[in-house]
Design brief:
By secondary structure, the chain is of the alpha/beta class. The chain is built from 11 helices and 11 strands. Helices cover 44% and strands 16% of the residues. Bound molecules: 1,4-dihydronicotinamide adenine dinucleotide (NAI) and oxaloacetate ion. NAD(+) binds at residues 43-49, 69, 129, 152-154, 263.
């Protein structure tokens, strides 16, 4: 029973991380003889952190799992460490243990920070989360400057530019190694599209570009596969539901936080893709919010090919429908101002 559950999680990871690009053929690294890879989760005792720790413990590409939070991590680590999979698990609580938690990390996943309550925007989290992200990234620059950073903490549209500025100041910035995790938008777009198009969700691909807040989330249903020729009104509704997916969960949780389980799943998919890229698996493509030149905005989410050094190639937008072209123009001012806000915070504080 346990083995079959593990296999189905592993095969879901394999299937889904075949990405928006749809390339399935690749070497299978799911044996325990792959290279050693240390993954650190910062904020590991939280709503996302705990299920993400579980999913990373199930990933055979991980040899060392480092779970850090300001408190509560020894319990989470002890619990997860009893699972009979490859990785060795260590828990670290408190800032004095952050250096050891980060030492030698190949990937650092950051779901540290406060979540939304009903009525809030992601930008309302800026005042608290900007400082948390800044201090964690300062430590990353010091203790594992070559790690790939998977930023989950909101507002992602600003926290990624903050991280970039911190790394620039420390002299460690490598734009190929910094990622805003927008995978949950892709996960949602796939689920909602499959429901409307009445196709099996496992075979669905939908790129989602732009950023990770409201109208800055732009799903490209014109490029969705398999093709379904949905009426325009349905595309409008699907787009809105994808953009409001986070709010849908925040409202349903009624003050008890935002998406945690689906986010942990999405975070695990994205980290798995990064691990595969590091390990030299070809054609690993996922959407992510990265430094970009595909529009005039300095950071933008689009399909990204992952490789041994992180970003191997930022892929273009492809052909857009008129509705998507309009959405792209609409999102630019908000995304630009969120980027500027992050840069200003990091350079002033
Ligand atoms: N990128 C995305 O798609 C998504 C992002 N999020 C964001 O993820 C973040 C975390 O959400 P939840 O896990 O639900 O929140 P939570 O409050 O349940 O957990 C956050 C954890 O971060 C820890 N933390 C706070 N300051 C820290 C520090 N300086 N160092 C290390 N850990 C620290 C807390 O102790 C707590 O355990 C929020 O900002 C939320 O908005 C949530 C869902 C989706
Ligand atoms: O909506 C939120 O606050 C959390 C989040 O980013 C998401 O679920 O997409």
């Amino acid at each position: 029973m346990k083995v079959s559950m593990l296999r189905s999680v592993q095969s879901a990871l394999k299937r889904t991380s075949s990405s928006t690009g749809g390339h399935i053929l690749r070497r299978d690294f799911s044996s325990e003889s792959g290279p050693n890879r240390k993954v650190a989760v910062l904020g590991a005792a939280g709503g996302i952190g705990q299920p993400l720790a579980l999913l990373m413990k199930l990933n055979p590409l991980v040899s060392h799992l480092s779970l850090y939070d300001i408190a509560g991590t020894p319990g989470v680590a002890a619990d997860v460490s009893h699972i009979n999979t490859r990785s060795e698990v260590k828990g670290y609580a408190g800032e004095e243990n952050l250096a050891e938690a980060l030492d030698g990390a190949d990937i650092v996943i950051i779901p540290a920070g406060v979540p939304r309550k009903p009525g809030m925007t992601r930008d309302d989290l800026f005042n608290i989360n900007a400082g948390i992200v800044k201090s964690l990234c300062t430590a990353i620059a010091k203790y594992c400057p070559h790690a790939l950073v998977n930023m989950i903490s909101n507002p992602v549209n600003s926290t990624v530019p903050i991280a970039a500025e911190v790394f620039k100041k420390a002299g460690t910035y490598d734009e190929k190694r910094l990622f805003g995790v927008t995978t949950l938008d892709v996960v949602r777009a796939k689920t909602f599209y499959a429901g409307k198009a009445k196709v099996p969700v496992a075979g669905v691909n939908v790129p989602v570009v732009g950023g990770h807040a409201g109208v800055t989330i732009l799903p490209l249903f014109s490029q969705a596969t398999p093709k379904a020729n949905l009426p325009h009104e349905e595309i409008i509704a699907l787009t809105k539901r994808t953009q409001d997916g986070g709010t849908e969960v925040v409202e349903a949780k009624a003050g008890k936080g935002s998406a945690t389980l689906s986010m942990a799943y999405a975070g695990a998919i994205f980290a798995d893709a990064c691990l595969k890229g590091l390990n030299g698996v070809p054609d690993v493509v996922e959407c992510s919010y990265v430094q970009s030149t595909i529009t005039e905005l300095p950071f933008f989410a689009s399909k990204v090919r992952l490789g041994k050094n992180g970003v191997e190639e930022v892929l273009g937008l492809g052909a857009l429908s008129d509705f998507e072209k309009e959405g792209l123009e609409k999102l630019k001012p908000e995304l630009q101002s969120s980027i500027e806000k992050g840069i200003k915070f990091a350079s002033q504080s």
